[in-house]
Automatic annotation (TrEMBL):
SUPFAM superfamilies: ISP domain. The keyword Iron applies. It comes from the Bacteria. Coiled coil: none annotated. It comes from Komagataeibacter rhaeticus. One of its GO terms (molecular function) is oxidoreductase activity. The keyword Acetylation does not apply. This is Rieske (2Fe-2S) protein. PANTHER family: 3-KETOSTEROID-9-ALPHA-MONOOXYGENASE, OXYGENASE COMPONENT, IRON-SULFUR DOMAIN CONTAINING PROTEIN. Keywords: 2Fe-2S, Iron, Iron-sulfur, Metal-binding, Oxidoreductase.
Amino acid sequence: MKQVPSGSRALCALEAAREAPQRVLCDGRALVVWMVDEDRPGVIDDRCPHGNARLSAGYVLYGRIVCPLHMWTFGPDGRAQAPGGRTEAAGPAPRAYDCWISGDQVWARV
Ligand code: FES
């Protein structure tokens, strides 16, 4: 029998995450799930610290999720990069979650 870490949840279908960033509501949190590369998902809070946009409404570029409003990008660690490099006026970085693929689903410890 396969061991599942406590607090683990199946968030969405792998194919869906490969097609586009997915917004997932889980225990009162809004998360965005996307594919950093073919075999590596990313899961962070679905909120941009710059202007509270939904990151799930953005797109993926070179493995980073791009905010649809002002094009800040976020890696799977939740750290931001901004055009021009100025992120100091932002709120806290989105929380990042341990995540993995199991079967045809993306899982995370939330
Ligand atoms: S709201 Fe996301 S970059 Fe401005």
